[in-house]
Membrane peptidoglycan carboxypeptidase
Amino acid sequence: MSMLSGALAAGLAIPFAGLAGFTTQKTSETLQDLPQQFDEVPLKQKSQIFAADGKLIATLAEQNRVPVKLSQVAPIMQKAIVAIEDDRFYEHGALDMKGTLRALLQNQSSGSVQQGGSSITQQYVKISLVEKAKTPEEVAAATADTYQRKVAELRYAVAVEKQYSKNEILEKYLNLANFGDGAWGIQQAAQHYFSVNASQLTLAQAAMLAGLVKNPTGYDPTNNAKRAKDRRDVVIRRMLELHVISLSQANSALKTPVIDPAKVRPNKLGCANGPYPFYCEYVVSELENNKAFGKTRSEASNYIKTAGLTIRTSLDPKIQAAAQRSIDTHSKPTDQAVAAITIVEPGTGVVKAMAQSRTYGNKRGQTAYNYNVGKSYAGGYGGYQIGSTMKAFTIAAAIQKGLPLNYKINSPDTIDLSGKKFSTCEGTTSAPDYTPKNSTKNVPDPTMIQAAQKSTNTYFLQLSQQTGLCSIARISANLGLYNAQSGEPLQQVPSMTLGIDYVTPLQLTAAYAAFAARGMYCVPWLITSIKDSAGKSMSTPGANCKQVLKPEVADGVNAVLHQVMEAGGTGSKLKFGNSDLAGKTGTINQAKAVWYAGYSSKLAAAAVVADASPPYHQLIGQTLNGEKMRDASGSGTAGPIWEAAMKSALQGYPTTRFTAPSSIVVRGNVKDLPFVNGMNPDDASNKLKQAGFEATVASGTVNSEEAAGTVAYTDPRQRDGAPEGSLVTIYVSNGNKQGQQPNEPQNSTKPPNGKPGRGNR
C-alpha cells in the first residue's frame, strides 16, 4: 500500500501533504462524476492568405501548426519522444505504475524533479484541457496543481485509451504539443528549426525536438543553444540506454550542432510580416466582418486564426509591383505628402493592386494607415476630397437626363450663384455668398466635352443646377461613393459637383471602373475563395455586380472623358499605348489633395497625392519624391503616378476600344426650342414655357446684333434644342454689335459651406 500510494503521488504529482484529505470517497465521487468519453479538442491550425497566383501573403495563427499523420513523422522522432517522455507507452494503460514509481525514487534520491510520472496519454489530456479553456480562469483550472485536477486528468486518460489506439494517441500528442518559439506540432517544429518536414528528421534533430516539450521556452535553441544541447544530449543518452539506437549513432548525434541558425525559419505571423501588409489587413477586416465566421469581430478573428483556412485573394503580384514601382518612382516614404493608388478590374470588381508611399510600421516614413480605404476598416485612413473627379458623375446625370454631348452653357470665369436654388432629393438648397471661379483657361461657351477637357467649374456648377443634385447623388451612391470617414451619403450642396466629401482611391477606382464596364458597378472584390482545413470550399461572397447605369449612358461618359486624354484635354500628356483611355483630373481648394482617375476597358485606377497630417495644408511647399513642390495638380502630380502604373499594368492586355455612344446620346433626347431672338424677354420666357421648358433671364446684358433690351440668344442655343422641362437661360442684348470674349481668371474657389474647398485641374 505504501508503494502504491507513493506511485500514485508521483504519477499524479499530488503533494504528500494533500493525501491526508484525499479520501477513497472523494476519489470515487470524482471518477463517477467524470464523463466516460473524452471529447477531442479541435486542433488550432494556422490560416494562410494567398495572392491570385498562389504567392503567400500572410499566415494568421494563434498557434502556428500544420497537422500531419503519424506516417508522415520520421520513426526516429516517434522513438525519441517515447524514450524521453514515456518509454513504456506501448506497454501500459493510462497510468504507468512502474514508470511513476521509478520517477518517484529518482526524484527523491536526487532531491529535484529529474523524471516526470505522467504518461504521454496523460500529457495529451492535460494539453487538450488547456486548449479547450477559453478564459484565464479555465486555463488556471486546467493547470492547477491539485489532486482533484490530477484525478480528473487520469479519468480522461482512461477514456482516451479506450477510444484510441496507441499510435492515434501519439499522433494527436505530436500534433498538439508546443515545441517553443511559436512552433506548435511536430511538422511546424521541423520546418521552423531545421527547414525540413517531420518525415525527414534525423536522430539529432528528433532528440532536440523531443527534449523541447518538457520546457519549450527554457530549452528553446534560438534563445539558449547550450541548454538546448544539454537537454538534447539527455534524450540521446536515454535512447542509447533503452537500446533504441547504437553507440555509434549516439556518438555521431552528440557531436552534431544543435541547430544551424541559417536554416531556422522565422515564424512570421500576421499581415505586418507579409509582403503586402495594407492589402492583407483590408482582407482580414473583410473576413472579420463576415458573420459566418462569428457573431462578433472578436469571435470571427479567433476563428480565422485557428480554423486552418486557405484564403485566395484577387491581388495580382505583377500589377501590384507595377503600382508600387510607380509610387516608389514618384515619391518617397519620408515625404511630407503621401501618395496612393488602387487598381480594379472593370466588370468583376477584382482589386488587383493597392499601393502607397509610406511603408507599414511605426518608424519615420512608416504608418499603420491604409490610405486607399475608408475608416470602417481597420487602419483605414478615410479618404480625401476628390475635387473635379466628381464631375464625371454630373456628366452621367446630364446624359441620363438627355442632354447632348455638345450641350453648351455660357461659362464665364466667375459666376454669382449666391442664393441660387439647386434641387435636392429633399427639396432645394442654396448658398448665401457663393461666387465660384475657374482655375484653368476655358472656352467661353463650351460644350460638355470642352468643359470636361478644361475642367470648367462654372460650366459644371450650372450643369448640376440643371440636372439637379439628387440625380448626381443617386448615381454616385449607386457607384459606391459615400463619405469614407463618416459613412454618410455625399452632401447635396451647390458645390457638390466640385467634390465636397471624403472618398477613397478604392471607392473612386471602383466607380470609374463602372463606366469602363458600360454601367456595371461591382463592389470591390478581394476574397475570391476560401477552403477549410480539409480542403473543402466554403461559401463566400463572389462578384457582386449590378447594372446601375444604362450602357448607352456609360458610353456617353466614356466618350466625354476619353476626350480629356486627347489633344486639348488636361490629361492629354498622360495618354499612352493604342487602347482607348479615359480619365479626369481633380484638385481640391488650395491643392491639399490632387487626383487622377482613369481607365481602359480592362483596368481602372485612381491615384492621389495629399497632405495626410491634420491640420491639412496645401501641397505646394511640401516634399514629394524628396523635393519641395512648386506646383500641384491632378495632371502634373498625381497623373504621372497613374500613367506609369497603368502603362505597366496593361502590358500583355489586348488593345481595346470603348463602345461608341449612340446618336441619341450624342445629340441628346432633345426637342426643338422655339426661336425667340429679338423678342421681349418676358414674351420669350412665356413662349419657352408654353413649349415645355423652364426659363430664366440672366442678369446684365451681352453684346449682340439684336436690339438693346431684346433677347440676344438662349442657352442652350435654339439650334441645339434641349430636353423637355430643362432650364433655358435668356440673355438680353445691349445693342453692341462688337463681340467680346470673357476674361479667364486663374484662381480656384472656396466653397460656400466653409469646408476645405475643391479645385479642378
Observations:
- The mean pLDDT is 89.
